[in-house]
Amino acid sequence: MRYSLFNLIGQTMRGHRGWPRAWRDPDPKAGYDVVIVGAGGHGLATAYYLAKEHGITNVAVLEKGYLGGGNVGRNTTIVRSNYELPGNEPFYEHSLKLWEGLSQDINYNVMFSQRGVLNLAHSDGQVDAFARRGNGMRLHGADAVLLTREEVRERVPALDLDNARFPVRGGLLQPRAGTARHDAVAWGLARAADSLGVDIIQNCEVTGIARENGRVTGVETTRGHIKAGKVGLAVAGHTTKLAEMAGLRLPVESHLLQAFVTEAIKPMVDQVVTFAAGHFYISQSDHGGLVFGSSLDGYNSYAARGNMPAVEHTIEAAMSLMPSVGRLRLLRHWGGVMDMSMDGSPIISKTPVEGLYLNGGWCYGGFKATPGSGWCFAHTIARDEPHALNAPLSLERFESGHLLDEESTGPFPNTH
Ligand SMILES: Cc1cc2nc3c(=O)[nH]c(=O)nc-3n(C[C@H](O)[C@H](O)[C@H](O)COP(=O)(O)OP(=O)(O)OC[C@H]3O[C@@H](n4cnc5c(N)ncnc54)[C@H](O)[C@@H]3O)c2cc1C
């Protein structure tokens, strides 16, 4: 059933008793043309675009827990394309363009809100760097506006511009960037993929990757062996574990990142604001809570929970940027497992194992990439070769040295 005003009125008259399930709950079949591991945003988007763009519908998405229980439902929902390097910017801009039509495309309101993302600059050097980044973005067809300190003050009155420890010198604004409702993204993509015939199988953990003569033949799961012509990994924080099952050691580490939400208040921050003197980002949810986060917890782990020093560090950053935040009560905080690559950029790629494809290394920024990543990964799997947009995001770059070190922090994932 398509969601529409007409259907909403019809269901209202019937007391909302006629809505069908948003997606089926099928048992796994003996085999599929393509098996995607991981029902997060990237796995679901890949399955959707495999069916929609390439007509490949004999597809299963296998999820060890429940759909959307991973990072897709744990992030701070920031969507942007303000990258600098030629290998990154066209990919993220393509993703942003897909976001702009996503709700209509999948017939599900993902609440994409183009409220703008404002990066604050705290030194003359940062203003110069942002000017360079903005020019690079515009050369790739993205939008970017350099703001003066007074323009920043006008846009975000809650900032402490006069007494702050780190003075604000200006900012780089991407007006088309913003936020989306993360759970809706998972649910909408699941519903859209399911409606095209994709089987989404929850509570089905992949425990092994079956191979014969260097080629993938299927996966071992907690619900039995499933044959597969091709297997795509989209397991975010568990990327290294799954790759290990196929004998691959990846340039990826798993780290923890926490997110925070306060009690709901009246509108206070009407765009996403990032703080470049530390590492901190804040926005306000439609419900009214301030949603924010900062840096990784600083140690490797697969446990989706964080430690107290990271909480203190984050709150300190919040206080130096917007002291009024200190009067709010923190409602919840939670953690997710981040797949940090060694140059800070993602991997959407074929692997040395024939028929096995890899989507991972998303670091802090995979949510914004969800539609673009699924679109490019589907292309790579269907055609057995990367699209021009994800060719620079190959696994081989770590062998050849063509790294995409956007942050210039080298192979130190904790500093990306
Ligand atoms: C606190 C936090 C804040 C963030 N903020 C932002 C942000 O503001 N903007 C942004 O762009 N990005 C952000 N990110 C990053 C972003 O959320 C991730 O990069 C992105 O969601 C990862 O892709 P995914 O949605 O497919 O991952 P996930 O939702 O984690 O999906 C992977 C799935 O694979 C499943 N899986 C794992 N192992 C197996 C197995 N063996 N068998 C079957 N299934 C398996 C998992 O259960 C999981 O559901 C943030 C992340 C965190 C943790």
From TrEMBL:
Keywords: Cytoplasm, FAD, Flavoprotein, FMN, Nucleotide-binding, Oxidoreductase. Pfam families: DAO (PF01266). GO terms for cellular component: cytoplasm. The keyword DNA damage does not apply. It catalyses: sarcosine + O2 + H2O = formaldehyde + glycine + H2O2; sarcosine + (6S)-5,6,7,8-tetrahydrofolate + O2 = (6R)-5,10-methylene-5,6,7,8-tetrahydrofolate + glycine + H2O2. InterPro entries: FAD-dep_OxRdtase, FAD/NAD-bd_sf, Rhodanese-like_dom, SoxB. It is an enzyme of class 1 (oxidoreductase). Its main location: cytoplasm. GO terms for biological process: tetrahydrofolate metabolic process. Its cofactor is FAD; FMN. It is found in: Cytoplasm. The keyword Iron-sulfur does not apply. Its EC number is 1.5.3.24. GO terms for molecular function: nucleotide binding; sarcosine oxidase activity. Residues 34-78 form the Rhodanese domain. Belongs to the SoxB family. This is Sarcosine oxidase subunit beta. It comes from Ferruginivarius sediminum.
